[in-house]
User: What shape does this take?
Amino acid sequence: MHALKDIWKDVTILPMTRDDLDEVVRIETASFRQPWSRRQFEIELKNPVSHQYIVRISINNRQRVAGYIIFWLIHGEAHILNIAIHPLFRKRGLARRLLEASLDIMKKKGIDEVYLEVRRSNEPAINLYTSFGFELIYIREMYYGDEDALVMRLNLGDS
Ligand SMILES: CC(C)(COP(=O)(O)OP(=O)(O)OC[C@H]1O[C@@H](n2cnc3c(N)ncnc32)[C@H](O)[C@@H]1OP(=O)(O)O)[C@@H](O)C(=O)NCCC(=O)NCCS
Assistant: This one.
């Protein structure tokens, strides 16, 4: 008997729709200390500068949302606002696939620089970003109320 996390296949990256929101909100709630509400995702879906993608997998011929990313493209820059993978499907390269696809989209749209904020203690996310070439540019002290944010930047022209 395989564990659920070992039997998924058919990884696809797709634009997020309202139909994905039940699963997206469940992943969000399982992933963050201060999760976004469903309303915040609905606002993003209507925001013209916001881009939202899901990573979808197939388990026993059933489609399932395994994670998502949200970024803004504004004034020639990209800002990654949110990325999460369902706890059951982590450490299997899905965030890497999602970020790679997102950076490709940004490049095609002529974006030069990508910015994000991450909690100082969030080692998995910091490692992920660093492996793509993101660099620390400054620290926003107590940005999250209880913890500093590292502000990181990737120059897409260099990657
Ligand atoms: C951060 C997160 C998105 C990574 O997703 P994931 O699908 O598990 O990541 P991947 O399997 O694609 O791993 C890519 C790289 O990330 C890093 N990484 C991922 N999980 C890690 C962990 N538990 N510890 C250390 N590094 C880790 C590694 O550098 C890894 O590369 P490697 O496999 O070659 O070592 C996931 O842990 C998550 O959803 N966390 C909660 C939400 C969150 O913190 N989002 C970021 C907000 S800024």
